[in-house]
Amino acid sequence: MPTTFNFEKIEVSTKPNWYLACPQNYCGDNKKLVTPVFNMPRAKLEAAWEEVAAKLPRTQLVSHNQKTNEYVYTQRSLMLHFPDDIHVKFVDLGENQSGILMYSQARYGYYDMGVNKARVKDWLKLLEQQVA
Question: pLDDT exceeding 90 applies to what percent of the chain?
């Protein structure tokens, strides 16, 4: 079962097995990466994301809350099939501008050996390519 994560009241793990990326004025000091502003409405960005997410290997959509524009995924590691939980949220950032918040965390273990950081960066790159 995926861990819970609330983007409105962020409580990150004390273990170094997570990575958080958010737009400039979101997530306070917890974020490790500032995500780009996308010059499109949130619904269009979210639709592009759904196309990207459908192609991600070993990844399962666990839940989608249409009211809060949040998705929860589980992605399993290639070799040992360990699950990681990824929380994705889309926000309006102004007229025809939107952003993405992404939190990725290993479900088991203390260290993640950079897997969550690489995942978030890779998924953001795939989204940027999709909307280009």
Answer: 83
